[in-house]
Amino acid sequence: MRKAGVLQAEVEILVPFFDVDSMEVVWHGHYVKYLEVARCALLDRLDHNYTQMRAAGYAWPIIDLQLRYIRGAQFGQRIVVRADLIEWQNRLKINYLICDAVSGERLTRASTVQVAVDIASREMQLASPKVFVAAVEQALA
Question: Record's family (predicted)?
């Protein structure tokens, strides 16, 4: 099991019908959407979400996405998506775990890496902006 992050957020999702494929399991591409829901919850916990990132002058595109599917989620299944903050000084790395809400069975694990990009110049930053680092430090205090 991966090391827990310094800050976590969990969301519960009821798998909707329109997310399943003809094999009656969640189509693999929809897991990225579930990660986004958990990531937004984590950023809200930091009090520095995408709206605040943009207001500070930075975009945070995902530059790396890793997914490992263990067991497919199904229509009507309640799943819990946990996002763990792993790195924030030079990049934003988040690990995820998707589990069945009832049994706790592990279904999928994932990670994303995002970097700050100055919106005005479109230049990638080699370190996370001070405003973001300060938000993380405040949330951890």
Answer: Belongs to the 4-hydroxybenzoyl-CoA thioesterase family.
